[in-house]
Amino acid sequence: MASEEELFASVDALLNEEPHLPPPAERARLREAAGITQARLATALKTTTQSVKNWENGRSEPKSPRLDAYQRLLNGWAAKYPAPGAAPAVSAVATAPAASAEPAASEAARADAPQPVHVPGAGPTRPATRSAATSRRPASARPAADPRFPHGPLAVLDADGCAYGLDGIVLECPATSVVELVEWTLRASGLGAPRLHRNGKDSDPLIVLTAAAAVKLGLPERLEGHEQRRSLRLPEGHPVVKQVVKAKWRLTQRGFGPWARIYRKIQGRERQCVQFAILSWDALDERSWPGVAEMEPADVARVLGVYAQRVLTPRGSTAVSGLELMTALRPPTRAVQDPQTGNWVPGHNPGSLGVEPVDPAPPEATPEHPVVVDSGWSGGFLNEEAYQWVRDVSLLTDEECTLPYAVGLDLNTAFLAAAARLVVGLSAPDHFVGPKFNPKIPGSWLVDLSHVEVDPRLPSPFTPDGTRPTGPAWYQTHTVAYAQELGYNVAPLEGYLRRETGAYLDPWHDRLKAAYVDTLADLGVTKDLTDAEFLAAMERHKDVDPAMAAVLAAIKATVKGGIGKLRERPQGRKYQEGERWPALERPTWRPDIRAAVISKARINMHRKLRNMATMTGLYPLAVLSDCVVYPSPGDSPLGFLPYAASGKPQPGGFRLGPTPGLAKLEGVQSMLWAVDLMEQGYNPARHIKGGDAVLDEGE
Q: What contacts 330, CB < 8 A, 6 or more positions away?
């Protein structure tokens, strides 16, 4: 008989290696939830051994309660995660999509469930036929990560009833109305995505409608008319909206627009919610999803599916998705046990922003915010924005003017790099008079930095336009700390500081960084390339795979848009100053966190500019957000970037590479062209790419 240690090793191997069992994190959670420790297993084994001996001797004893619990757990795993080829056991807790929506589903209903058609390397060409013989996923297909969602996070529905999913899967959808489509999605599609955090929620399935599919379901191909275009939603009297309400489904306050949610109140633990995106209603903005709306359904599914796997299932614009990702990775609540009743109830999740919105300090708010209007605040505001600076033409030297080229460098996802290990405030601000500056306390400080001397050939690190401060002003902690780093004393007059702090954006940064680097690698831009190879790869990366290039663009838009949403301004012509607008009611309306990210990004940029001047003697011509333009002897940044004798890049300055915070080539023009723009008052960094660069300051 095997020893206890050998049996433990066998159990661990089973739990950690068998592909049909839950993922490692889920196994650990299940084991912890069941209270199974090695000591309890040892007790169960001893009880089992004794029970066998008693049975052999003709005696009978009750089983160990712990052994019963362990056996029930194993039976549950066997039912929920059947071995490949084994007949699935019937479990009391249904986990299949159809069963979770309707536990008492009949055999006929299960027979109607769609069988996926797998199209290897699916592209614009659609499968001509889908016979019964080819209506199953081949053995070579990648297994689903979560058995509850075997067909991935989303599907793109076309008018022929084909719903295109990730990895070339095509589902047959019989729905002929929006209500039928909702029912099919929840009961039979197998669509959805698991939660990103153990205290979070699973992602609702997303159905993307082509223009033809929208018309087939009774929706207009486009939202026509001034009122509909302005509000971007169907009127309440539209037949489809009436059908939804009549079937006892609900729409969110956004109504039926380009991104619509149809749901019912949660019954038990099962969410009943489906999200829709209508391509012909401009659900996918061209700036964030270049060319995607014009792709074939299978390619649209590939782009959105990869984004869903690496970021999250889209829930609106990329800005909305960026904000939703923060909450998904830092859920506001977790289950805690009520000491009085013993029941599990929602409680605050440490490190999150909680469930209640927090008003900012007056200097952190916008001029129309109620805390400003109601208090009559006139003490100034934070002005932590990205750079828009051009060097004075009179400060150009003859040597610089004789250089033939102006070369633009762009920092990869500068805001994302600034979010790394960034400590921000999690609680409401407290007001202090004459506080001693502490660089570890996030908040806003009223301090005079006009005495800080900066080389006039560089922008001031304290203002977005690069001009020198003229007196006391409000600054975020990183800006004041940089003045100390430069060797100057700072004496704040006031401060709005936060006692509870944390690196709230860390998991957001880590997930988006991995998504960005992995997507660039899919386009042939990897970390192991030399600088010359990196520049060559970046020059052609958009042509390697337009679908993955669109994913990359969406990831970058998610970063900037998510930071911008932290300070969403009021919208609509009817808004009156001093009124609260909808964005203020969410905990993630946090202009102080946005200011912290942008302040750190701007300081990071200035630090590199200063180090470049020290190492190379070169000074920038202009800076626009994360783009800087330098005079150069050649048409490549390799001609002026600092390298050691060994050929390795010097630390501290700009370095080429594919990770956030490193640089890539933005564009090359003649030096004469750049000087001409500067003399006219224009910023060369805006046009160095060959057009009008989009300045996105996180709005």
A: 197, 349, 351, 352, 353, 504, 507, 508
